[in-house]
Write a structure and sequence with these properties.
Immunoglobulin-like; five-stranded antiparallel β-sheet; 280 residues; single chain; 18 strands; mainly beta; Lipoprotein; signal
Length: 280
């Protein structure tokens, strides 16, 4: 898990880089502890308890999808508005805030690796930006975690342990990264002859950190004639029990064949790179 936060005095307008770097480790640990406690309350299904820091959050924006592979570190940018009173000292080393995402059905929780940066917009509001960090190689996710996650934000004070959370500020899809291949043969081929098009649809497995075939999925075979920029769909087929794809079509003119997958809530859409066939 990771977390994001930031603070900024009204007169300063920007959080010093050194402050953000120094506060990140303590913020991550403190925020994880706060959210671990919160997650125990009906798995984050109920609203957070009344804030004791005089802090609320709104206007949160996050990417519609976070696509995660098997090993590479992935980040998602988050922005939101923080509203606070004198109980929260913006810019103090004793205070931080940041976004998080959570999945109620699995208890999954992801934060950022460092505090968010906040810019004061009035005496009681600030515009904040931070990251959600995902490390699949460090087992941040299980396959069951793929799907819809909710977003929230929290604020905390290190010296007292006081905190405030706002839940249900938005949603994002955390998805298992997908790959799609294609091979059309023979090349070249005589006009009117049969072309066999093979390929495979696969997606990341977050538990063994490999790619496996995505089975029983609808995939479109598409064609783009030479000199054109648009693909047209020739037919739709279904991936087999190992994610493999195979079909045939008739050679008519020079062009590119590809497979196209529309995606699901757990797996992003993907297009194979077109394979050119010379028709003679």
């Amino acid at each position: 898990m990771a977390a994001v936060s930031g603070a900024l005095a009204l007169s300063a307008l920007v959080v010093p880089a050194a402050q953000a770097a120094d506060s990140a480790p303590s913020y991550k640990a403190a925020a994880a502890k706060v959210l671990s406690h919160t997650a125990g309350k009906s798995a984050l299904k109920a609203a957070a308890e009344p804030a004791d820091l005089g802090v609320t959050f709104s206007n949160l924006k996050i990417a519609s999808a976070i696509k995660v592979g098997t090993t590479n570190h992935v980040t998602a940018s988050v922005s939101y508005t923080m509203t606070y009173d004198s109980s929260y000292v913006l810019g103090s080393d004793d205070f931080d805030n940041g976004p998080f995402i959570y999945k109620e059905s699995t208890g999954g929780m992801l934060l950022g690796q460092a505090p968010a940066a906040c810019t004061a917009t009035s005496a009681t509001t600030a515009s904040c930006k931070g990251l959600i960090d995902v490390y699949p190689a460090e087992n941040d996710l299980l396959n069951v975690d793929a799907g819809t996650w909710k977003a929230g934000a929290l604020a905390l004070q290190y010296s007292t342990g006081a905190s405030a959370e706002t839940l249900g500020l938005g949603t994002t899809q955390v998805q298992r990264y997908s790959k799609l291949t294609v091979n059309a043969s023979p090349e070249p081929v005589k006009k009117g002859k049969t072309i066999t098009v093979t390929g495979q649809l696969s997606r990341a497995n977050w538990e063994d950190h490999k790619y496996h075939g995505y089975t029983k999925q609808s995939v479109k075979l598409q064609f783009r004639k030479k000199g054109s920029s648009a693909y047209t769909t020739l037919k739709t087929i279904t991936s087999d029990s190992t994610g493999n794809l195979k079909t045939t079509t008739t050679a008519k003119e020079d062009g590119y064949f590809r497979y196209s997958f529309a995606g699901t809530s757990t797996t992003p859409a993907v297009n194979a790179t077109g394979d050119f066939v010379d028709v003679q």
